[in-house]
Write a structure and sequence with these properties.
The structure holds two protein chains of two kinds. Helix content of chain A is 27%, strand content 29%. By secondary structure, chain A is α/β, with parallel strands linked by helices. Chain A is globular and about 45 Å long. Classes of the chains: A alpha/beta, B alpha/beta.
Chain lengths: 201, 254
């Protein structure tokens, strides 16, 4: 299995590549629409600012290509900001449009709690989850974010809580995303990556 | 569902080796950074911090190479720092495989550095490291490895750092550092109450009870220590089981 990692010009790609390689996948970085459309499986990692991220995708003409890939049921895993970008909009960048592949808006974490939400937290399944297969409810994952999607919908597979409940795992057929960093989440994160590769096979 | 308190080992790196400063005797070699990193990754450390303690321009390449070697051993987050003066320095650390960078002296000299890094990489990637020493009823900020007083109030500086975009505060007590007399819980609690971001307590840890105190009385979100873990005087796994038994939420790995 070869996984195409979308390279939009920022972010710590080596750690994602290493995690995929440890799970037995080949990886390649893709920067072009052709690369995205030809992918067997796609990982969309993301750090930084929502506006820079979605603009980076647009400038490389990757937005439509990602839509095409999802329509063709190519497995896609969004990580952190890569998950947030799948939604319609974000409070981090009012007026910027997300990929709109999933309904909902990304919001700032409430002011009553520490933000960024940094550290290891647990998640609660809202239904059966492919990505969390084999993992207990006591598993911890590493989060590092100031924004999240508070309105759970049918695509939400698991939620976490920090000021408000938010989508921690999103799964809609082969379109998936996690708010935490599986590549930084020890053995539990490695299992999530393996599960993604399994569903992609 | 609880956000766990973090245990963070710290590697002080000089010329590609982990070292520990021993009073009046210079630096003592504590081992290979990648080997120690692999051990901490295995033992259940929640993150790793590595600092370039000499941070000279000539040695920058050596340190970046060490960051690459360490990062390739980890399935946990890595923070790197020491000598970051401008955006490109931070970028180089992140490209070498760090997830976050710490700034200290250069941020005091030019606070815009914090804003620049946060704008480029996000607040979650920027840790403001501050070395503080008791001064009257509060704490003063020191720079250049704790050698120079700035006259800046620690609480005011922490607040400014967060306003400028720091996503975490790493607070080292100079009074306690290397003394093994426990974390400075008062300083940690004062900073934690003043800012809206997580606070990492550092300096003075020796016993399991020291960690318990800084999480309870000190309100720390994370606790950092170096030599007590390197020498295997304290095991991270045992420390976490102790904390869990005392009701502190921690990530205990098998």
């Amino acid at each position: 299995m070869k996984v195409s990692i979308v390279d939009y010009g920022a972010g710590n790609l080596p750690s994602v590549e290493r995690a995929l390689a440890l799970a037995g996948a080949e990886t390649e970085r893709v920067t072009t629409p052709e690369g995205v459309r030809g992918a067997q499986a796609i990982v969309l990692p993301g750090v930084g600012h929502f506006a820079a991220f979605v603009n980076g995708l647009r400038e490389r003409n990757l937005t439509e290509a990602l839509h095409d890939a999802v329509r063709a049921n190519v497995p896609l895993l969004g990580i952190c900001l890569g998950l947030q970008a799948l939604y319609e909009s974000s409070e981090e960048a009012p007026g910027e449009r997300g990929l709109g592949l999933v309904a909902g808006a990304v919001r700032a974490l409430p002011r009553e709690v520490k933000s960024p939400h940094i550290g290891w937290n647990q998640v609660r399944r809202s239904r059966d989850s492919l990505l969390l297969r084999g993992l207990g409810n006591d598993a911890y994952f590493y989060f590092a974010h100031s924004y999240a999607t508070p309105e759970a919908n049918s695509a939400t597979a698991a939620v976490c809580d920090h000021g408000f409940g938010f989508t921690a795992v999103m799964e809609r057929e082969r379109l998936m995303g996690v708010q935490f960093h599986p590549e930084k989440s020890g053995a539990a994160g490695a299992r999530v990556i393996e599960n993604f590769l399994e569903t992609a096979r | 569902m609880t956000l766990a308190r973090r245990i963070i080992p710290c590697l002080d790196v000089d010329a590609g080796r982990v070292v520990k400063g021993v009073e009046f005797q210079g630096l003592r070699d504590m081992g290979d950074p990648a080997e120690l990193a692999a051990r901490y990754n295995r033992e259940g450390a929640d993150e790793l911090v590595m600092l370039d303690i000499t941070a000279t321009v000539e040695r920058r390449c050596t340190f970046l190479e060490t960051v690459r070697r360490v990062a390739s051993e980890l399935q946990i987050p890595l923070t790197a720092g020491g000598g970051i003066r401008k955006l490109e320095d931070g970028n180089a650390m992140l490209r070498a495989g760090a997830d976050k960078v710490t700034v200290n002296t250069a941020a005091v000299a030019r606070p815009e550095l914090i804003s620049e890094l946060a704008a480029q990489f996000g607040s979650q990637a920027v840790v403001l490291s501050m070395d503080v020493k008791r001064a009257g009823y509060g704490w003063g900020v020191y720079v250049r490895g704790g050698r120079d007083a700035t006259g800046i109030d620690a609480v005011a500086w922490a607040k400014e750092g967060v306003e400028r975009g720091a996503g975490e505060i790493m607070l080292t007590s100079i009074d306690r550092d290397g003394t093994c007399s426990g974390f400075d819980c008062d300083a940690t609690a004062a900073i934690a109450a003043a800012v809206t971001v997580p606070v990492i307590a550092s300096g003075g840890a020796k016993t399991f009870e020291d960690f318990l105190s800084v999480f309870e009385g000190g309100a720390a979100d994370a606790a950092l220590a170096a030599s007590i873990f390197h020498t295997e005087a304290q095991s991270i796994g045992e420390l976490k089981r102790f904390l869990a038994s005392r009701g502190v939420p921690v990530r205990v790995t098998a």
